[in-house]
Specification:
The structure is a single chain. By secondary structure, the protein is α/β, with parallel strands linked by helices. The protein is built from 7 helices and 7 strands; from the N terminus they run E-H-E-H-E-H-E-H-E-H-E-H-H-E. It has a 7-stranded parallel sheet, sandwiched between helices. Strand 4, helix 4 and strand 5 form a beta-alpha-beta unit. Helix 1 packs across helix 7 and helix 3 runs parallel beside helix 4. It is globular. The N and C termini lie far apart (40 Å).
Length: 248
Amino acid sequence: MYNPFSLEGKTILVTGASSGIGRATAIECSRMGAKVIITARNEERLKETLEQLEGDDHCMILCNLADTLAIDGLVSNLPEIHGLVNNAGFTKLSLLQFVKEEDLKSIFQVNTIAPVLLFQKLLKKKKIKKDASIVFTSSMAGLGCTSVGNSMYTASKGAISAYIKTAALELAPKSIRINAICPAMVNTGILEGGSVTKEQLKEDMKQYPLGRYGDPYDIAWAMIYLLSDASSWITGTNLILDGGLTLK
């Protein structure tokens, strides 16, 4: 059956695959025929993702991306890949005057430094095939659609949305495409710390013309598009997925 979005014959690495967008993306990649390599730091939850993948030959590699040496170990254990979903990330809300240096460093380490270093190390070790597709998970926050208390996350994702522009330009001669997905609010565990109440989230949802937050699978299907040959003429793009939020 003709399917330009097929990932048959492709090996895809997905970081942050133990939950949320990363888990949904890994599952959907497997359904589209890819061999999927998943990584995260939580072994139990990563095993749960692995069990949900369709098909054979998938594998999981534990890795704490906040540890640069662990990234080296991950890269050394990888085969050549056709696609990378650089998805791992987290947030912590804080008003500007209460931002702590250690929080700022930890958010940038996971959201910005780790994905950039992982991609660089894969390139240096020649683990990325020609015509590969690299997708970073950025955010609408990274494009300036932010909120009070979200400065650290916004800055970390803004760096990614800018980075992919230069990366796409530099890697174009090798036919390696670099793009980013920029979701608005998605129903994941990213805000389970309790800093935002259910009532606040319900009120915020009214801003979305489509009447809901995104689902992890909404983002995963966009990832599939960018990983597949259907998007072979797209690079250096921040793809907006916002349920119509920026129409207002």
